[in-house]
Structures are given as C-alpha cells and as structure tokens.
Amino acid sequence: MTLLNSPEYLQIPVHVRSFCYKMPFVVKQEPYLVAICVVSHIQATIICSQQHDLQIRTRSGGHDFEGLSYVAEVPFVLIDLMYLREIKVDVDNQTAWVQAGATIGELYYSISQKSKTLGFPAGLCATVGTGGHFSGGGYGFLMRKYGLAADNTIDAHIIDVQGNLLDRKGMGEDLFWAIRGGGGASFGVIVAWKINLVPVPSKVTVFQVARTLEQNATEIIQRWQLVANKLDERISVWMGMKRVNSSQHGKLTIQATFVSTFLGDVQQLIPLMRKSFPELGLVREDCTETSWIGSVVFMNAGLVGSAGNESPEVLLNRTQFRMSFKGKSDYGRKPIPLEGLRGLCHFLYDNEVRGAVQFVPYGGRMDEISESEIPFPHRSGYIFHILYSVSWQEEGDTAGS
C-alpha cells in the first residue's frame, strides 16, 4: 500500500481518463489512502476500511463516465488494481483467466499471441479495464454475433465485505448473476474473471466511410436506423455524428461516419451491404481485410487519433487515452424521426463544446438473450445504443477527436 502523496505513488501513471473530475468545481474528496496491492492486501484494506468507517472505491481502468472509481464526497480508500494484470489463455479449452487490473487491450493482445482464430466480444478502447468493463456488461463490435463480454463470463474471483476470496461456487449463483452487468464494485472487489473465448475467422474486413449533410447524410442515417440491427449478425456498423468543416468554402457541416467490422472477407461483405444497405454506397476500395487483432487495432485507432495500421503492441499502451469529456448513454426502441435528426444536427452545430453522438446497433445475438439472463436488460426490442458526449482540450489530453 502507499499514501496518495508519497513519492512512490507520484511516479505511477494515475488512471484518470476524464480530466474533468480533477477540476475545482467537482465536489469531491481525495482518497485517504491509495492501495496498489496484491490480493491479500485488498482483503486487509477492506477490513481496515470498515474499522475506520471509510468507504472503498475500486479502480480498474478509470473509464467510468461519472468518475466513481476515483472520486467521492465522503472519506474513502482507493483500491487500484493496476498491478493485478495476469492473463492466462487456454487455447485448447477456448477460455482465459484475466485479472481485473488488465485492460481489454492487454487481453486482446494476449489472445492474439496464442491464437489467430480466437477472440473476445468486448469494447474497442484498449485502455478500458476488464474489472469494470465486464461487470457493467461490456459491448463491442462482436456483440451482434456473440453478445456482451458479461454474457461470455463463466467464473470470477471476488473479495466480499468480510475479506473472503470466493469463486463462482463459493459466492453462489445469485451473486455471480449480479456482478455480470450489475456493477461488480457494488458487491465486493472483483480480482479476476474467467471467460469463454469465441471463434473468429482468419480474415476480417473493416471499413470507415464518412458522409456529410451535402452527401445526403440525413437520408443515409435514416436508412441505417431501419437496417443496422437487421443486418447479417457478422456485420456490425456503428454510426457517429459530429460537426466538421465542410469542403465547401470551409463552412461547418455535420458528418456521419459509419465504421464496421465484418467477420469475413470483402467478397462476402460487399454483396451483403449492397442488398441491405445500398444507400451507404460501400465499395471494395473502402474496405480493408485484416486479422481479428488487426480489426481491434483499427477500431482503437479511431479513439486515439492514430493511423490504424500500428502493430498489435500498441494495445499494451495504458496511457494512450486521457482527455476531458462527459458521456451519457441511452437506448432506442424506435428510429429517430427526421425532425428529431434535424434537431440533433442543430444541437451539434450550436454547441460551443465539441459534441458527438455515437449509435451502436443491436439485433443478432442480443435479440436472442433474455433480458433477465444477467442484470443487463437491454436486449430484444432495442435497436441501438446511443452515446452522447462532449469533449474539450486541457493540458495533458492525449486522445484524438
């Protein structure tokens, strides 16, 4: 363990992803103690915190939108899992044990070093910690084929309020149900997950296509809302909207960007897209064939502003995403009407802070899993997930736009 202001702690990169929670206007207290420790020290920290009437915050990757893993309004102890990062991949049984302090980027990289035809359905930002990501559900580009990260979690190690280290059998099925989508930190400190790996083809296709309002973006967005959740489950086409400078005299306009991973080659993808989503106008030149791990690097690059053709080792960089932002999630059951889209565009035009909206299609496997299977209820009937976000530049920000 180490005190917050000790020399040892100040030399360690702090996992604060959204700098807005370090600003003076945020009501908060600094942690009384930061515990960066092994499992036995976590057990001792829990017991000592109870004796001194201190709350506990658990930080894995530090990506939670409200900063709940590193700020509080009451005295608290911060348990940082950054040194619990061991990953054991079992190719023969298509499973892996991953400690909760590991990032999903580190997990993806470890899988790719053992197999070219196994993957895992989790998020696209490599610096997200597995501890919080899996316990919140964990959606990504493979969810239309395989569901959420939490749907593919088969065991866990958790330290309960009494300091007991429990596996799935020891904690019981009710608690194991609750920590997969219900927020693991609500029930104890998760220190490791056992997951099922999923088969992926040796060749995967990705694309990123942008259309502005002058290029009929509004009509394409409307069509996307109708078809994205009904496409072949191997296809996941995400759509984002933001304000950009138009090529026409530098005027501001709204751009819709369509980003996709397809579990197959480009010769399979193009006919499927032409049949179900011809409005996008996808052509072979828009597409890149790569490996599954290559597709992960490509998608992560969009967040950090890199080229997307880096080696998989880029996924091991735990400090590539640090920015000032505010995010909020929503879920849609019906397409947004044209009037609503116009209002959304107007908001993106007028907002002085950089605003963006991301739409993630559901359907496929997500329609097949019961809303009560785990505490993540957004299943059949939901056509997309929406992420509203605003961001701004501060000193030390490192993420792309």
UniProtKB/TrEMBL annotation:
<dbReference type="InterPro" id="IPR006094">
    <property type="entry name" value="Oxid_FAD_bind_N"/>
</dbReference>
<dbReference type="Pfam" id="PF01565">
    <property type="entry name" value="FAD_binding_4"/>
</dbReference>
<dbReference type="InterPro" id="IPR016169">
    <property type="entry name" value="FAD-bd_PCMH_sub2"/>
</dbReference>
<dbReference type="GO" id="GO:0071949">
    <property type="term" value="F:FAD binding"/>
</dbReference>
<protein>
    <recommendedName>
        <fullName>FAD-binding PCMH-type domain-containing protein</fullName>
    </recommendedName>
</protein>
<dbReference type="InterPro" id="IPR016167">
    <property type="entry name" value="FAD-bd_PCMH_sub1"/>
</dbReference>
<dbReference type="InterPro" id="IPR036318">
    <property type="entry name" value="FAD-bd_PCMH-like_sf"/>
</dbReference>
<dbReference type="InterPro" id="IPR016166">
    <property type="entry name" value="FAD-bd_PCMH"/>
</dbReference>
<feature type="domain" description="FAD-binding PCMH-type">
    <location>
        <begin position="27"/>
        <end position="200"/>
    </location>
</feature>
